[in-house]
Amino acid sequence: MILPTKAMATQELTVKRKPSENTLQVQASSPVPLGVRIPTVALHMMELFDTTVEQLYSIFTVKDLTNKKIVMKWRCRNWPEEHYATVALNFVPTLGQTELQLECKGVPVCKEENVKFCWQKQHFEEIKGLLQLTPLNG
Fold first, then answer.
1. Pick from 23, 24, 29, 38: which is nearest to 10 by CA?
2. 6-57 pLDDT tens trace
3. Which has the closest alpha carbon to 101: 46, 48, 61, 42?
4. What's the Cα-to-Cα distance from 98 to each of 64, 67, 73, 77, 106, rounded to whole Å?
5. Which residues make Cβ contacts (< 8 Å) with residue 38, sequence separation at least 6?
6. Is residue 92 a contact partner of residue 101, using CB atoms and an 8 Å limit?
7. HEC string of the chain?
8. Of 42, 45, 57, 106, residue with least CA distance to 79
9. What sign does the CA torsion over 18, 19, 24, 26 have?
10. How far apart are the C-alpha atoms of 110 and 39, rounded to whole Å?
11. pLDDT tens for residues 103-137?
12. Which of 63, 68, 91, 99 is most exposed, with the fewest beta carbons within 10 Å of its own?
């Protein structure tokens, strides 16, 4: 499941009110990232699909295939609300198949096996089932 990320706060605003005036002064300070600091690890997975790079890529996005790589923010529902991992999907053509290389950075410690299971069962196996129903040139 891919969920949208929360926007990074680009500026912290300081509001000052002068006692004798009704106007506000707003000052901008340095950017402050939103998020939760927790111990994390990186995961690497690889899966082979019996399809072309173009067809597999099109399952993940409607954008044109330009560099055979997709990078996105991703999180599990049970992670802290503002914590996201960075997922890179690399599409590598092989003889008659496509190798999907997944790199997931920022997975909370102790959640590695859950995340691997999620990608394997809820994504890779579902995609393989979809590809069996979809003709190669369809």
1. 29
2. 444 333 334 444 444 444 344 444 444 555 578 889 999 999 999 999 999 9
3. 46
4. 17, 14, 23, 29, 26
5. 80, 83, 108, 109
6. yes
7. CCCCCCCCCCCCEEEEECCCCCCEEEEECCCCCCCCCCCEEEEEEEEEECCCHHHHHHHHCCCCCCCCEEEEEECCCCCCCCCCEEEEEEEEEECCEEEEEEEEEEEECCCHHHHHHHHHHHHHHHHHHHHHHCCCCC
8. 106
9. positive
10. 9
11. 999 898 888 898 999 899 989 999 999 888 876 54
12. 63
The span from the CA of 21 to the CA of 19, in Å, is 6
Residue type at position 47? E
Instruction: Write the single-letter amino acid at 78.
Output: N
Token pair, residue 138, equals 């369809």
Output the six-digit token pair for 127: 């995609």
